[in-house]
Design brief:
The complex is a heterodimer of chains A (about 325) and B (about 350). With about 325 residues, chain A is an alpha/beta fold. In chain A, about 30% of the residues lie in helices and about 25% in strands. Chain A is built from eleven helices and 14 strands. In chain A, the strands form three sheets. In chain A, strands 3-2-6-1-7-8-9 form a seven-stranded parallel beta sheet, sandwiched between helices. The N terminus of chain A is likely disordered. Chain B is mostly beta strands and about 350 residues long. Chain B has a single domain, classed as Methylamine Dehydrogenase, Chain H (7 Propeller). In chain B, strand 12 and strand 13 form a beta hairpin. The longest helix of chain B is centred in the C-terminal third of the chain and has 5 residues. Chain B starts with 11 loop residues before the first strand and ends with a helix. The N terminus and C terminus of chain B are likely disordered. Classes of the chains: A alpha/beta (about 325), B mainly beta (about 350). Chains A and B meet through helix 3 of A and loops of B.
């Protein structure tokens, strides 16, 4: 449920960055760049596949991707048991880490990793999921996206893009610029919220990758949401997004009831939900995010006198009914 | 601070204190109470005498020492760590690496007769018999072994992992589990009642599951606000203490058992239960919490009668056999010896007759 958590909670928690992307996309290259350039910061790395990490002073722990279901088998509440154990022990140590990076396997579904930060209270109280960074190989990603899968089998490349907070389009030197533009358009249609960065050998500005968190979410949603509507008529896409913008103040109870019901009934189809909300009786903006049906919100800065109190919600997923979403969200306005 | 009940206000004397160095993951006394051992997340392991005198420093376990256990029958210690090694130690100072695995070791447990040592490394169960050179390993389990518990007769070892406890009989040729209490949940703790009748599992999904050990009949306690972090049976097997992140509750297994009842909630702290343990006489329950070690006369009231080291987050606690002495480990790496000097000479746990 959205709560009025003290925003300072965010700052005391250690940020966790999740790196996803297919084998060969450039995850390990990016990781090595982070560890080299962030020399002096204490970073713990949790890896699934022992890569060629060339840095000695980072603590590297190998994880055994171990996914289990919570709540009697609901697929949306799958979490990573190995991460709960490893992160739990990391946070007990006397020397604290400035940042934790989790590198997933190439074929990993990012949802259980992200959901671990919502479901386990010990983890949630000490760590915050800063961002899911998806690294893609500009030359090969379309092949993976277009792969036809039997009914009910997920396309991992698609999921990794849909869940991302940042997409690094890597190896741009291997593709011409028209193809790149086309590719980015395609990615944006799947996930309009993720910041997109072009890179060669993962040479991105690390300030755009680490420590972006809620700030990034607020900024993404501050952009004119008109760009979000461009995907409406692309029926060939299995994953799309719907953005809703409505002025007025939200009744917290009605919103909780609606979101709780909506996210739990459509949990499998709704990958991520993000939003900025104006709550009745609160001077602050509320930044909201969900992974499948697990959601939380944090109070953000106060609304400025010169800005309209406007609610913005973005849903990324399958089979999204824009008309129904708009109607039911409008019913939450006080 | 804590409100102490006026009639039972008791003293806790700190007998000694020393530094280990980092978060104390485990403390344990040997069967006679002559030696205790403590392990920390820095990897240090120390053996001490009953007054805290240092006896031995064991080789470090890089990335942290995670589990330790004394044989119930001999002064033999088993210690394990995230480096995937299990070591044994015997006085005056014989150390040996008995198992080496690529995955970290999360649990070690001696059988009650001291003949077997069970170890969980990642998804692998290993069992060593006596002084055997080799460790027998079993086929990969569905998820990491989080805890191990032996049946009272030392025949079966229960493995806690995802999907309910599985039981193995190391005396048999076959590798297959001899029993599996199938249940869809992630088990974190597994404890067998001293009576041998029950086995309880504390779970990630905020529940406790209890089975009759030999029939597999089960019951479930739900409604906990957080995952279950600590679990202990009283010496008489009458009570099951359950620690979650913000509470400790007590289930009464007298008579027809706890089915349809509500547990007693023990109060007095706000932050994190890491361990619960009954005193050897069964009269006291101690919990290591984020607010120190709390001690309850659990049959009398729900408020603590004493707080050891208030202000220190206690990570673990153990009673010395045959005494009311406590060994406490803290989040920041201290080891404390304390004596609960309260009401003495109380009658034995009345549950002893009821469940015999």
């Amino acid at each position: 449920m959205p709560t009025d958590d003290d925003p300072t909670d965010l700052e005391t928690r250690v940020p966790v960055t999740v790196l996803t992307g297919f084998l060969g996309a450039g995850k390990t290259t990016l990781l090595n760049r982070i560890l080299t350039e962030q020399h002096g910061r204490r970073i713990a790395v949790i890896e699934n596949e022992f890569g060629e990490i060339g840095i000695d002073d980072a603590l590297v722990i190998e994880a055994d991707e171990e996914i289990f279901e919570m709540n009697n088998g609901c697929i949306c509440c799958t979490v990573r048991g190995d991460l709960i154990r490893i992160l739990g022990n990391l946070m007990k140590r006397r020397d604290r880490f400035d940042a934790i990076i989790i590198e997933t396997t190439g074929l990993a579904d990012p949802a259980p990793v992200a959901q671990t930060f919502f479901v386990d209270e010990e983890v949630a109280s000490q760590l915050s999921l800063d961002a899911i960074i998806t690294v893609i190989d500009a030359r090969h990603v379309l092949t993976h996206l277009d792969e036809t899968r039997p009914e009910g089998i997920e396309n991992e490349a698609l999921e990794q893009i849909a869940f991302a907070d940042r997409i690094i389009v890597n190896k741009t030197d291997l593709v011409d610029s028209d193809a790149l533009d086309e590719l980015e358009q395609r990615l944006r249609a799947i996930n309009p919220l993720a910041g997109m960065m072009r890179a060669q050998h993962a040479n991105v500005d690390l300030d755009q990758v680490l420590g972006i968190g809620g700030f990034d979410l607020a900024r993404a949603l501050d952009l004119d949401p008109a760009f979000l509507t461009s995907t409406d008529h692309q029926h060939d896409l299995s994953v799309t997004s719907v953005a809703i913008e409505l002025p007025g103040e939200v009744d917290l109870k009605r919103l909780n009831d609606w979101l709780g019901t909506f996210l739990s009934t459509q949990a499998v189809d709704v990958f991520r939900t993000k939003g900025i909300l104006a709550i009745r009786g609160d001077d602050r903006r509320h930044v909201f995010q969900a992974v499948h049906m697990l959601f939380d919100s944090q109070a953000d800065r106060p609304w400025r006198a010169d800005e309209d109190r406007t609610n913005r919600l973005v849903f990324i997923g399958r089979n999204l009914d824009r008309a129904e979403l708009e109607r039911s969200f409008a019913a939450c306005i006080a | 601070m804590y409100r102490l009940s006026a009639v039972t206000a008791v003293m806790v004397d700190i007998l000694w204190a020393q530094e280990l160095d980092d978060y104390v993951t485990a403390v344990a006394w040997d069967a006679t109470g002559d030696h205790a051992a403590a392990a920390s997340l820095s990897g240090r392991v120390r053996v001490i005498g009953c007054t805290g005198t240092p006896v031995a420093e064991l080789p470090a376990h890089p990335l942290g020492a995670t589990a330790l256990a004394w044989s119930p029958r001999a002064p033999r210690l088993a210690v394990a760590g995230q480096d995937g090694r299990v070591r044994t130690w015997e006085p005056p100072g014989h150390t040996q690496v008995v198992w080496e695995q690529p995955d970290w070791i999360g649990a070690v447990a001696w059988s009650p007769n001291g003949a077997w040592l069970a170890m969980g490394a990642g998804r692998i169960l290993g069992v060593r018999h006596g002084d055997a050179e080799t460790v027998r390993t079993y086929p990969r389990l569905p998820s990491t072994v989080t805890d191990l518990a032996w049946s009272f007769d030392s025949r079966r070892v229960g493995v806690a992992c995802y999907g309910g406890p599985r039981w193995f009989e190391p005396g048999r040729e076959a590798d297959a589990a001899v029993a599996h209490f199938d249940w869809k949940g992630s088990l974190l703790r597994l404890v067998v009642a001293p009576s041998g009748k029950w086995v309880a599992a504390g779970n990630q999904d905020r529940s406790v599951h209890v089975w009759r050990l030999w029939s597999g009949d089960d019951m479930q306690m739900t409604g906990y606000p957080n995952k279950i972090t600590a679990l202990a049976w009283s010496p008489s097997s009458r009570y099951l203490a359950v620690g979650s992140i913000a509470d400790v509750t007590l289930w009464d297994f007298a008579g027809r058992g706890p089915r349809g009842t509500t547990p007693k909630a023990l109060t007095g702290f706000e932050h994190g239960t890491r361990a619960v343990t009954f005193s050897p006489d069964g009269d006291l329950l101690a919990a290591a919490t984020g607010d120190g070690v709390l001690v309850w006369e659990h049959r009398r009231g729900s408020e603590p009668v004493a707080v050891v080291a208030p202000g220190f987050a206690a990570s673990t606690v153990a009673w010395r056999p045959g005494s009311r002495d406590l060994l406490v480990g803290t989040d920041t790496g201290q080891l404390l010896g304390a004596r609960f000097d309260g009401t003495q000479g109380r009658p034995a746990d009345p549950g002893t007759q009821a469940t015999a």
